[in-house]
Amino acid sequence: MKTTYTTILHQAREELGITNNEYILADTIEKLSRPVCYATQKTLGEIVGINERNTRHALKRLTEKGLINNEPRKLTTTDKWKDKTRLLQEVEKTSKGDEKTSEKRSKRPEKEVEKTYYNNNIIIRDNNKYKLPQKFGSSTSERLLKLYSLMWWDKFGFRPTLNKRKLTPLIKKMTESCAESEIALMIMLHFDWRGTTGDDEWQYKRLLENSFPFEWIVTSINKYQVHLRNVCGVNTEKEEDMFRYLTLLYKDKFGSDLSTLE
User: What per-residue confidence (pLDDT) applies to 34?
Assistant: First the structure.
């Protein structure tokens, strides 16, 4: 029973609030799960390189943080752990791939009509009709990050420092299942987010304390969709409905008509 290595994604580790050893331990449990991990605390400690006492403490911390299910001789990692680490693993892979090919690619103007895979269906749509204005940027990621910056400015009174190298692949991943107008709606909701029902003040305080990180939108897509449908009454399968609601929110927030900002 042995694992060869653990790659620590420090962004994930910091956001989960765990130590290096706790991260390695959770990663080891996931790799040894077939479908559960039957390793003893002594064995896990030997793999990670810590004593049995520290192993018990680390397992307790991981359980309290909701990252593992800890039953006697039956350990598994939770969806919270998997969602955070696997998403950032994909981002790392995409970033490395983009670095290798970026110098080879030349900039191309966006096509007027494109194919989009949306809810497992292919939709042919006008490339500009239900998107943010070109004034926001020439690409989807530029436009969405511009909107995020505007919302941040409205909240804090200054521009955020954005790591576009990491955020651009995140947005690219989101657009595989969400339309641009839907992601824009999520960004606007993000800065006033109070849970799927809209009345959870703890959710808002948590976001405020962490300065409304963009990455949290990516891991909460389903929650935002539930809120849009059940609370806002928006049909998230119709871009026209989403863009109409986006226009209303934008005008209410900034006092200008989104559709005229060309």
Answer: 79
- Alpha carbon 97 to chain centroid distance? 19
Q: Which two tokens stand for residue 176?
A: 């595989």
Residue ranges matching CATH 1.10.10.10 in the chain: 1-106
Q: Which of 13, 52, 6, 10 is nearest to 29 (CA)?
A: 6
Structural fold of domain 1-106? Arc Repressor Mutant, subunit A (1.10.10)
Residue 199 zone, left/alpha/beta (φ > 0; ψ -120 to 50; rest): alpha
Helices 41-48, 20-32: axis angle to 10 degrees equals 120
Using an 8 Å Cβ cutoff, are 119 and 112 in contact? no
CA dist 61 → 18, 41, 65, 81, 224 (Å): 8, 14, 6, 13, 29
Spatial contact of 87 and 219, defined as CB atoms under 8 Å apart: yes
- Cβ-contact 116, 122 below 8 angstroms: yes
Q: Does 237 have pLDDT greater than 50?
A: yes
d(CA 152, CA 159): 7
Question: If you average pLDDT over residues 103-130, what whole number do you get?
Answer: 45
Instruction: Please report, in angstroms and rounded to a whole number, the separation of the first and last CA atoms in the chain.
Output: 61
Q: What pLDDT, in 10s, does the model give residues 176-196?
A: 888 899 999 999 999 999 998
Q: What is the pLDDT of residues 128-180, one digit of tens each?
A: 578 888 889 889 999 999 999 999 999 999 999 999 999 999 999 888 888 89
DSSP labels, 122-139: EEEEETTTTS--GGG-SS
What gap in Å lies between CA 14 and CA 58, rounded to an integer?
A: 16
